[in-house]
## 1
Amino acid sequence: MSQVPYLLTPGPLTTSQATKQSMLRDWGSWDSDFNQITRRVCERLLAIVQAAGTHECVPLQGSGTFSVEAAIGTLVPRGGHVLVPQNGAYCQRIARICRVLGRKLTTIDYAEDAAVRAEDIERQLQADPGITHVALVHCETSAGILNPLEAVAEVVARQGRALIVDAMSSFGALPIDARTTPFDALIAASGKCLEGPPGMAFVIAKRSVLERAEGNSHSLAMDLYDQWVYMQRTTQWRFTPPTHVVAAFDSAIDQYLREGACAARGARYAANCRTLVNGFSQLGLRSFLPAAIQAPIIVTFHAPRLPHYEFRSFYAAVKAHGYILYPGKLTSIETFRVGCMGQLGERGMAGAVEAVAEVLAELTAAA
Ligand SMILES: *Cc1c(COP(=O)(O)O)cnc(C)c1O
């Protein structure tokens, strides 16, 4: 194979040549040129969700989970009480963060193939006035479900509570508007729909909420308040920034805006998702979710019906054809996942469908 395989995974994903090239230079963390890049990145991230003026963007070193944990730890006071509607592994991770940080937790549990319902959340908030925050995962990347962010934001606001959104795998591809969708904080990362390399995440937090967050965090390194105050005062990151990642993320955002921002990115992923689901369906591969709740980000498929099927060997065969699949994350049935994001080259998603068709033919012949 002449080229490294394309990643059909929901982060890390295949970045463009221009994004990779922007990592070929070193930056000083105190250097004003670098700190202007950080400032530009944060301003553009705020603009993507129309949050300039009301919210602040606080970047943080690390993968997305670091920022989710930092947001819960910094923005939920120690006496707070978090409601987590759960329909997948990323919701469960938020619940686990609440337990580890000692924040009071209530969950509403759903099946892995059902979307969260705003009515259930409203009922729970009415029944328990002690709940201070709701933490919602917008696109549940474990099965690929789109949860109803706008409807949930509306009931949370109506009940006078705060909303924290894990928008990790939707930010930049699915529209979110801070002017009409009230939230205290929204979290995403460099290596997802904005197609940068992994290594930094960010929290878009309401300024009035951040201003009141001093002293909430149990942790020094994960204290978003401290990171925000320090950055405002010095223009620098507290502690060593992931310089190459920030520079490449800046380039990736540039390309994103030139491509046509959220509308274009969302349309490209939706087209990928259609090509994938239709193409696989012709190969006899069934997707797991009902179309109505399928986000155009990542698709879960039932395992191929082959004798002696094993994900590992299927994965290896598809990799030999130039594509990296993602294992399933469901608890009870055998599945695998395919991400719709990233730079998939000239043949795009059709190339991936062709590769899987060839692999299935090979494995069938060998069986
Ligand atoms: C990717 C992702 C995260 C963060 O996971 P990391 O492995 O820490 O990058 C959190 N929530 C959702 C919904 C995600 O898709």
Note: The CA atoms of residues 57 and 204 lie 4 Å apart.
## 2
Amino acid sequence: MTLEDFRNWSRRIADWSATYLDGLRDRPVRAQTAPGEVFDALPATPPEDATSMETIFADFERLVPDAMTHWQHPRFFAYFPANAAPASMLAEQLVTTMAAQCMLWQTSPAATEMETRMIDWLRQAVGLPEGWRGVIQDSASSATLSAVMTMRERALDWRGIRSGLAGEAAPRIYASAQTHSSVDKACWVAGIGQDNLVKIATDSDYGMDPAALRAAIAADRAAGHLPAGVVLCVGGTAIGASDPVAAILAIAQEEGLYTHIDAAWAGSAMICPELRHIWAGAERADSIVFNPHKWLGAQFDCSVQFLKDPTDQLKSLTLRPDYLETPGMEDAVNYSEWTIPLGRRFRALKLWFLIRAYGLEGLRTRIRNHIAWSNEACEAIRARPGLQIVTEPRFSLFSFACTAGDEATADLLERINTDGRTYLTQTRHDGRYVIRFQVGQFDCTRGDVMEAVGVIGELAGG
Ligand SMILES: *Cc1c(COP(=O)(O)O)cnc(C)c1O
């Protein structure tokens, strides 16, 4: 491909992108594709000879868009959002073009220094005290794994990274049952094991019960285990539950345990000062993760891990072989030393574009609208005969079910998602099958939310 071809194709693809985004409301939200359709449409063997871009692009248009679930669709109310505000998409196009490997300061100074500045902008935006640092990771799962590694190594006085875990007391991690499965996986990968992730009972509001945490730590010490850390949940995935942050952190601190708050979704909402009471006391944690790629609008992937003091995490994860030394710059910040993967993308640029293009106030307005519309949708569904609210709105997430029971609820969900005008997903809550409804897509309007409510009512009958 010549650079002239590249220029022309970049323009065509930019046009296609705007047309795609503009037409999303006319597409079904969830892919209406049968399993195997795309696989079968692709040749079984790779081409030996070059194919023209014209043909490649025509095949893309023929095979791909209709077989996608459209995460930027304004009537996407499933899972949590993966918002890509258009300004952040533009930053990603530039990053893709420079295609730098941002592992060390020297390999891309702008990426490193902008990352430091963006972390500090976001620290101020969510109201954390001065002095907190941080790093941008690919996903909350990676940030949580980094924190769990730090919990493990701190408890073992950094013997684990040298000698392994054989012969050591079992490091124990505490979390509630509302905590995301990424905590379980972090314990698997860190060699801690599922059995050493202690799920603490929750109170009537589905937050971790402080007395139960205290009792579990005491029982573990008596049994010769090694309490290492607590993972707290703010805005859990199933129903948006939060732990009582200040009470749990106080116990963890008394016990000398490292703490990590998983606010992957709800952390974005902390740019609104009136919502910060939900994580009051968070500044006493050691580590906090939130995903600007969820609710804030930074194109996936972009997960921010704040650290009160990075020293323990750096001691747990820094490796500096000769070939990664930067002679004369031993003190430079090399963010790959803060995380598990060595290679890193330039993720700070999309935050820079996003925060400047909308302003914090523009981003806050979106989140406040989403919460208000979610409350409105909840009341409209509550008023429908045959439907009931199971969990009340937390941030912008609530859940509902058919009064007729689980089977009727699952049928309704399938009808909604086959219809295509909106997209919702399910969870189990207290043994019941429920439909989650979260409002958070960057460009959705009140009209989109109310249209989804109308679809639910229409398909539920009654
Ligand atoms: C989405 C989510 C995660 C996982 O985030 P990834 O970035 O996909 O790894 C973890 N915890 C909570 C509460 C989440 O909402």
Note: The longest strand covers residues 226-233.
